[in-house]
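step 3/5: co-fold with D-glutamic acid
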Amino acid sequence: MKIGIFDSGLGGLIIAKAIRREMPKYDYAYLGDTKRVPYGNRSHDAVYEFARECVDYLFRKENCAVVIVACNTASARALRKLQKEYLAQNFPGRKILGVLIPAAEEAAKYSRIGVLATAGTVASGSFSREILKKNRKAEVFQNPAPMLVPLAEEGEKKLAEKFIGKYLKPLLAKKPEAIVLGCTHYPFFKSQIRRIAGKKVKIISQDEIVPRKLKEYLRLHSQISGKLSQKSTAKILVTDITANVKKLSAKWFLEKTRIIRIFLHHT
Ligand code: DGL
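step 4/5: write tokens
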């Protein structure tokens, strides 16, 4: 069986690559819902419905034992319901894990925390809630950074500079000790964010946290890891072959990875 990684689009490939670097032996299927990206400004119900269809595809058609929801918006708005309702009814022996809680756990080690995320993730309040569960004294400041997703997809690091400054300004005014990059695409701008935030601010980036946490999870849960095949394969599934698909998958994952267009079964 495989490890499935799902994102609203291709930003999750940054996390997928880091996971694969940490655990190269396993077999991976990545699903990017490129036809319907972005999820960041969609309603709660729409994000749940889309995420359920994608996760269902990875379980049914790709025979995944575990699916990582690499999308923060979907982790914030759909993960709990997917775990409690969809998984329990359809695949009780398998697992769905998100990327938001691992980052929130890391952030909770600090007391003043800034969060950059999509509008949907910020509106859900999930980062604040999860951080406060671990550290009741923490102060969390959030700011949506909507332009960074399209700018990352266009590879526009230079153009992004002034937006990064604008989005960080209200967070930096709160004198945070750490800033969470709460969206799949933001690690693309990590060095710029680090430079603007200054050396004293810890940048919490999921591509550095999730692989470690997943490895640990698999070590502790042999009922999942024991089912995983180890032929070192990876493929990328997309719901639409857009102009950027080849370019972004080569940039954020690996050149020459098989890219397959799939059709979701609307459930
Ligand atoms: N994958 C989304 C996230 O991490 C960003 C792109 C989108 O808005 O769909 O929140």
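step 5/5: annotate
Residues 44-60 form the longest helix (17 residues).
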